[in-house]
Specification:
Largest sheet: none
Radius of gyration: 20 Å
Number of domains: 1
Strand content: under 5%
Order of helices and strands: HHHHHHHHHH
Number of strands: 0
Distance between the termini: 29 Å
Shape: globular
Helix content: over 70%
Structural class: mainly alpha
């Protein structure tokens, strides 16, 4: 899944977030676990990649430096665009926990957001001080940074019309200003949606380094919503949205199967030795935050 599609999804989450926030039904734990796990994997990949790119090449050449610069740009694009969804989803889970008295959702979202902020800082530091970065590249990515921050503040501002979540925006003051404007102009959302898709698509054109994890993160968020919400706008008929919905349900089925197997194994183990097996975790995926 391309990073620019995560920004489009952030727009949908902002639009439909109030419905999820108000709903008394509990969000399934499996999608939240999947969101945390996939996000932490992506953060780990970013960390390793940025560390490698920060080290000067032992045998520099024009081709090597060009490749490094292009890959750095694709990573920075993914970090910057991905932060829009990270912040908007954190805002939704924060508002939902405030309203219903929970904390699990926002604890997971905050953990991911803090890691994302650290990756963003490392990426921008490398962009402006790293080896092989040309000035034009820095200018382009800095423009993308400003653009994604404004979109983040607008989308969080849409949620802040009803909930106190502006602190999760890139610029809380600007987000509150957007919220005041949007309270009286809800009919402008189709224009906002069209502008969001067009502006990001024009800026982010390189392949994303982690399309698999982007898709897992997006699918985990989609799985937290009712399909009727997205289908009411015709978005489930879009190719990437349909793929997300299918992926989210396939993942849920796999998780349910794994948990069922664990219960069987635990029962057998209890009968044989009175011991419970260790919980199933993929080796490349961290467990849930404590």
């Amino acid at each position: 899944m391309h990073a620019r599609e995560l920004v489009e999804l952030a727009g949908l989450v902002s639009l439909h977030g109030p419905t999820l926030i108000r709903s008394p039904a509990e969000i399934a734990k499996a999608p939240l676990q999947q969101y945390w796990s996939a996000s932490k994997c992506r953060l780990d990949r970013w960390g390793r990649t940025l560390k490698q790119l920060a080290e000067p090449s032992s045998q520099p050449s024009v081709a090597t430096e060009q490749t490094r610069a292009e890959y750095l740009q694709s990573v920075v694009e993914e970090v910057l665009t991905g932060e829009v969804l990270t912040r908007v989803w954190a805002a939704v889970l924060s508002a939902r926990d405030q309203r219903h008295g929970g904390e699990d959702g926002f604890l997971i979202a905050r953990s991911v957001l803090l890691g994302h902020q650290e990756s963003r800082h490392r990426a921008l530091t490398l962009l402006f001080h790293g080896p092989g970065v040309v000035s034009q590249q820095a200018v382009e990515l800095n423009r993308l940074r400003r653009q994604t921050e404004r979109w983040t503040d607008l989308l969080v501002g849409h949620l802040a019309c009803r909930e106190d979540v502006s602190e999760l925006a890139a610029d809380p003051k600007r987000s509150r200003e957007f919220a005041r404007e949007l309270r009286s102009r809800e009919d402008t959302w189709p224009l906002v949606w069209a502008a969001l898709r067009g502006s990001v698509a024009a800026e982010v054109t390189r392949p994303s380094p982690n399309p698999d994890l982007n898709a897992e993160i997006a699918a985990s968020i989609v799985a937290s919503f009712s399909p009727e919400l997205f289908d009411s706008t015709g978005l489930l008929r879009c190719g990437w949205m349909a793929r997300l919905w299918t992926t989210s349900h396939e993942t849920q089925g796999l998780i349910d199967e794994l948990f069922a197997n664990e219960r069987v194994e635990a029962s057998l183990s209890d009968g044989a030795a009175g011991l419970h097996p260790a919980p199933f975790l993929r080796r490349d995926r961290p467990g849930r935050p404590q």
